[in-house]
Amino acid sequence: MNDHDTLFAQLSTLSASLVLLFGIALLWRRSLGAYIKAFRWQSLVLSLAFVMIGYFGHDPELYIIAAALLALKVFIIPWYLTRLQMRVGTEREVQPYVNIATSLIVAGLLVMLAYAITRPLVMVSKLPTRGAIPLAVGLIFVGLFVIVSRRKALTQIVGFLVLENGIALLAALCTYGIPLIVELGVFLDVLMGFLVMQIIVYHISSTFESIDVEQLSQLKH
Amino acid sequence: MTGYLLEIGQALLALLLAPGLTGFIRWVKARLQGRRGAPPWQPYYDLRKLFGKDVVVSKNASWLFRFAPYMIFASTLAVTMIVPLVAAPLPFDAVGDLLAVVYLLLLGTFFLALAGLDPGTPFGGMGASREMTIAAIAEPTIALAIFGLAVGAGSTNLGRIVAQTLANPGGVINPGHLLGFSALFIVMLAETGRMPVDNPSTHLELTMIHEAMILEYSGRYLALIEWAAALKLLVFFSLLSNLFLPWGVATALTPGALGVAVIALALKLAALAVTVAVLETRLAKLRLFRVPELLAVSFVLALLSVTSSFLLR
Amino acid sequence: MTLLILMVTAYVAGAVGALLFGEGAAGRGVASFGAAVGSGAGLALGLTAIAPGESGQMLILAPMRLLPLTGMMLRLDGLSAFFLIIVGLIGLAVALYGFSYSTAYEGRYSLRMLGAMLNVLLLSLSMQVMADNALTFLIVWEAMSLSAYWLVLTENDKGETVRAAVWYIAMTHAGFAALVAMFLLLSGGDLTASFAGMRENAAALSPAMRNVIFLLALFGFSTKAGVVPLHVWLPMAHPVAPSHVSALMSGVVIKMGIYGLLRVALDLLGSGPVWWGGIVLGAGAVSAVLGVLYALMEHDLKRLLAYHSVENIGIILIGIGSGMIFQSYGLMALASLGFIGGLYHTVNHAAFKALLFLGAGSVLHATHTSNMEKMGGLIKRMPVTAFCFLIGSAAISALPPLNGFASEWIIFQSLLGGFNIPKPEVAVMMPIAVGMLALTSGLAAACFVKAFGITFLAIPRSGEAGKASEAPLSMRAAMVLLALACVALGLTPFIVVPALGQVIAGLGHLSDIPVRFTLGLSLDSPNGFGRMSPTLIGAGLLLLLALVPMVMLLLRVNWKVRVGESWGCGRLGQTPRMEYTATAFAEPLRRVFAELYRPTRELTIDFHPESKYFVQSIEYRSEITPWFEKYLYEPCLWLVRLLATVVRRLQSGSLNAYLVYVTIALVILLLTARI
């Protein structure tokens, strides 16, 4: 492996770990504001990671995606989430289904699991970025875990967005960016999904005067 | 022979630097908070004053209360002879490894907590209970951080770890290394009673931990305990700096190399001290029951550090 | 050979003498003397066997028939000798201690049985480790279980004791059944076949059969050792026995589970697939963490110690489990390290746990309670007991330079070697085990700060504690003996570790690779992975402890000491009610691990009838959910009761029906026997 690749490998693992760390930081926090902040930082590092991969992997298309990421996930979505939060009131994630210390340890174990299941892939891969692949998969798991273990609809949305960040990171690491058009399509999907969820949250909030998803079980009766 | 002189010299250096380090953090903190603050060498004056004062011992206390300060001081001082401050590997490298360092520090904590319980005041018990809780929960993180370092270097002995990292400088920006560093940093904050876990500048509030245990101490006993606490901080700082960023540590025992090592050590300690001071200015103290969550964060970091250095081999 | 005869004779004489001389001081004396001489002989036998002779080999007694025509066989090899040393050492201290301790039982309970059964228990423990065929093993095993049962039942007028004894005997028999099945499978039906024959037989068995044998052995021996979730009897039975018996049970009897597991899994079966070691390691890690977590919530000193036995058995199994895993991968040096760590911790735990139980016994003797909330200030009234208990507490918390540290260090080193395992799925267990072991030792330190601090420090919390007096000479001597053993075992790993290397070198496939550890003062783990010397650490600490006050004297610091009141926020006159209690001490950890404990709490406040501002009394009650009893054993018991009601229908009470049963049984028997 030459110096270029070594540096590439180290930087990609480093940035992937940072992205993952923000995902884990999310689990530690309680207030929605902190969730949004962590997500914003994560997306910022993610777009930097895209730039880095674009530079080392000689794929200029990634710059465009990075710019789109920056606009959408660092500015538009967080801004929108903050507005939504103001509208439905600032409810804290006081008592998640899984308490915080346990969530953190579960997250650690999930990342270990990610290492275990991606190992065959990492072993055969020749990509310089292969070291970061388990981290991206781990981030996907962490995102899923946030969705599963948190009560409030808004925190679940952030979990979904983190999950999406994980997928984007994985795509970038494995293929240096899937074709631009697909990537942009995914972005639009996310945006649409986000908007739909936002409308639903608004409805949950006005029906139950709370965004605790536990309230939804009342609909059964 | 020079080796043993080096050991004694290093222990003396640690004894000499430790109060200054605490004073320096206080001074930087005061400046950051817009106060003038006491000069960095204030702790030296404090120690001299305390050594000159009479000791008042509670009538409920037993011999253990009077023995504990010596035990705490001796165990911490013993650690400074194992941890490479200026040179590696030390002649005492084979006497103790990282695990021995951790358990020697735990020995000090054990006696400190017992001494807190001895006078029978509610504050002492409160401090002892909290201190042991935090020490116990911090333990897995330390062990895993050691695991990560040891797997990377192929040894748990500090001299070998330093030598190994010096030989492979590229490993330093390895995520395993960085994660291990941040895990140990959080543990350091908890173990040495800094913000956001414990407030070192408090003397009477219901949230105190370290200060609550030593509330009954005075005179030379208090001086010994305060000095030992400063030494412990120094030990953790030098572990963090010399195990993760070993540059400057002398590998040959020439006066030149040792001089460089002392300067490098001072610079690294100062950098860490400023970091801690900034953190203490920026952060509010956590509620006691949020501390385990903070330590869980550090545990996850350590686990990830081990995983990445372990499963990617 | 003479030592062996001396040992057996002394125990038998002690037992018979106790029965003959009866309740007075003579009976106590004879029983204790017999037990002491017997254990002394056992200790000497073990030591001479384990010490390398002129040929550098260990003394191994050839198989011998115990009594003609009974088919019972004995043999002494390294592993037997090692466990015989444990039995002898703890037996000696217990015999010494029991002499004075049993005075408290005079006139209240049967001293005759206490003395006799103690000797029988010690004899069966010594025979246990020397048994050379399944028949001997099982008979002695049963003798051990039954004599321990009698001893637990000493205070037989207490409901708690009877309940505990029933749990103990039921669990131990469930285990016994598994062991009988295991030995039948292993020996191919011939229980009198020697272990050497079984070893050959085992090699020829199919892998599936070997797995079944291993699982049966693991179950059987785990019930004796008190591995989670088979531990529930242990915290009930150990505390209710007389304290010196508790020391023997926690120090030695549960170790027979470890001995059996090693004998079967390592010696007879040789080695097995990776998952064997994985199960042992996992069970060990879970036992260690849960044991210490439940110990933290206990405020009865003896129950607390009993839970710590669960924890330490866990630590031992972590060592053995990692050894087994490495063995399966052919990493023999690391495997030996794991086994040595486990065995080292076995003898260490025997020493400090017996010491702690004897200390708790002295406290019980002086204050007539084992409730920690009623103690305090005993360090001034019982200085020797307090000092010995402090040594034991520091040793069990793995603090250097005592023995717990040396063995846990070795176990840590063996786990750290886990990165050599080629399979990541397996390798990943090692860092997790490291984390759990570290958590265990941290929590153990917290628990013993509580145990020692609340019991011995500060001011007495009850009248009895205020009037307590130091234990009699023989009890103090026993405790000092064990405290010295803790220090000596901690400071001499350079003797203990090579000896243990010899012990395991003859077992399994470890014989192929003799592991040599440096004989210097340092402990070296394989490939120089870690080096540490408890001896030098101890010397250094002592030196510094002497040096610091000397330097202070030289520098003429102020040496004046005044005695004053404790500072109580300006309030004068401190009462015991202001002290921190054991419950309060453990409260932060109870909150941290609330998910596990699921504490329930009740707070009743009685107000003064005149005004709501005056509180008359406050009652606070808090309990933790006993998971295993509630979710594992209750359903089992329910099932058993259900079956019993079904079976009860057979009991019609009519004689003719019973005769029909006999006939049917006979016919079936004849039919099956014919085939």
Total DSSP E strands of chain B: 1
Helix-strand string of chain B: HHEHHHHHHHHH
What is the helical fraction of chain B, as a range of percent?
A: 55-70%
Overall, the morphology of chain B is globular
Structural class of chain C: mainly alpha
Q: How large, in whole angstroms, is the Cα Rg of chain C? A: 26 Å
Uncertain residue segments of chain C: 512-516
Give the low-confidence spans of chain B: none
Strand count, sense and closure of the main sheet of chain B? none
Q: Report mean pLDDT of chain B, rounded to a whole number.
A: 89
- Let me know the average pLDDT of chain C: 87
Number of individual domains of chain B: 1
**Widest sheet: strand ordering of chain C:** 1-2
- What is the terminal separation of chain C in angstroms? 47 Å
Q: Which word captures the global form of chain C?
A: globular
Largest sheet of chain C, if any? Answer: 2 strands, antiparallel
H/I helix tally of chain B: 11
Class from secondary-structure proportions of chain B: mainly alpha
**Quaternary:** heterotrimer
What are the SSEs and their pairings?
The complex is a heterotrimer of chains A (221), B (313) and C (675).
Chain A: H1 3-28, H2 32-56, H3 61-88, H4 100-124, H5 133-149, H6 153-175, H7 180-208
Chain B: H1 2-32, H2 42-52, E1 55-58, H3 63-80, H4 98-117, H5 122-153, H6 158-167, H7 175-191, H8 210-213, H9 219-244, H10 255-282, H11 291-310
Chain C: H1 2-21, H2 25-50, E1 61-65, E2 73-76, H3 78-101, H4 111-128, H5 134-152, H6 159-187, H7 195-204, H8 207-225, H9 234-240, H10 243-253, H11 255-268, H12 274-296, H13 301-328, H14 332-367, H15 378-381, H16 383-396, H17 403-416, H18 424-427, H19 429-456, H20 463-467, H21 473-491, H22 493-505, E3 523-524, E4 531-532, H23 534-554, E5 561-564, H24 582-592, H25 594-597, E6 600-607, E7 615-623, H26 627-648, H27 655-674
Antiparallel strand pairs in C: 1-2, 3-4, 6-7
